[in-house]
Amino acid sequence: MAGSVLEIKDLHVSIEDKEILKGVNLTIKSGEFHAVMGPNGTGKSTLASAIMGHPKYEVTGGSITLDGEDVLEMEVDERARAGLFLAMQYPSEISGVTNSDFLRSSINARREEGDEIPLMKFIKEMDEAMDFLEMDKNMAQRYLNEGFSGGEKKRNEILQLMMMKAEIGILDEIDSGLDIDALKIVAKGINKLRDENFGCLIITHYQRLLNYIEPDFVHVMMQGRVVKSGGSELSQRLEAEGYDWIKKELNIEDETINA
Ligand SMILES: Nc1ncnc2c1ncn2[C@@H]1O[C@H](COP(=O)(O)OP(=O)(O)OP(=O)(O)O)[C@@H](O)[C@H]1O
Ligand SMILES: [Mg+2]
Questions:
Q1: Ligand 1, CB cutoff 6 Å, lining residues
Q2: What is the CATH number for 67?
């Protein structure tokens, strides 16, 4: 399907009755790469979890739509089937389910019954993607993320993203814990997906990832809102100067979100 649009409008999200997101507006179209930056604890991961429908995060206002369909009405698995993919900041370990089985059932969940991916085709595609990401083949038969190093987990998220053929990918700190070579490999994986049918939201703290994946748009989140948007010059300025200048420019008081 060509051209998806994920539209987030005035999104309010609470956790245990505490409001974390206070009106987020963001539109991601396929073909576009968006970076989201911002100080710790400002709600970036909350945004990612709310988009995917994590039950802990209560949406108290606003809307999320994918091609006009109400995402908030969808169950988590329906969101994945609709083409949303989240690479979590802290990927979960699932004991007893091999990486390969998990991948295959995730792919099949997005296909019609009776149109499951043929096993040989799946193995070939997985082998190719693992080669591309320079992953050890025995990772396919290990239990999902169990005992994986931090960097191996992140690389495995990209393996899933590449194989799932998602329409919109949300990558939460995909660069954290990666060594210098792994950072380049993960970036190479994301760049390989860049085409008019794929849009991406990349949550990151550092310019180092954006040196390899050039974002079309950079957004800054503070205190539960997107407070500033720009192009890649914005992330370069943040890298050089930190966040104080934005707070001054926008007259944002220094309050922690937990205050
Ligand atoms: N499950 C939860 N229970 C209680 N508080 C939570 C929960 N999840 C998030 N919070 C709080 O919500 C706020 C926003 O957290 P979030 O993880 O979205 O921040 P972040 O912008 O992703 O930060 P970081 O850059 O450190 O990853 C924080 O104050 C956090 O403590
Ligand atoms: Mg986070």
A1: 15-16, 20, 38, 40-46, 56, 89, 257-258
A2: 3.40.50.300
Q: What are phi and psi of 254, to 5 degrees?
A: -80, 90
Q: Examine residue 219 and state whether it is found in any structural domain, yes or no.
A: yes
Please give the distance, rounded to the nearest whole angstrom, from the Cα atom of residue 45 to the centre of ligand 2. 4
190-210 residue pLDDT tens:
999 999 999 999 999 999 999
Whether 106 maps to a domain, the answer reads: no
Q: Whose CA is nearest to atom 13 of ligand 1?
A: 41
Sequence-distant contacts of 102-109: CB under 8 A, at least 24 apart: 102/144, 103/159, 103/160, 103/163, 106/80, 106/160, 106/163, 106/164, 107/163, 107/164, 107/165, 109/77, 109/80, 109/81
Q: What letter represents residue 100's amino acid?
A: S
Ligand 2 is an ion; residues with CB less than 5 A from it: 44-45, 89
Atom 26, ligand 1: residue with shortest CA distance? 40
Tokens read off for 130: 């693992």
User: Taking the model in full, what pTM does it have?
Assistant: 0.93
Assigned domain for 40 exists: yes
- Quote the pLDDT of residue 259: 41
Instruction: For residue 74, give its domain range.
Output: 5-96+166-250
The SS3 call for residue 124 is: helix
Q: Total domain count for the chain? A: 1
Whether residue 14 lies inside any domain: the answer is yes
Which of 84, 34, 26 is closest to 213 using CA atoms? 34
Dist. CA 200–CA 193, nearest whole Å: 9
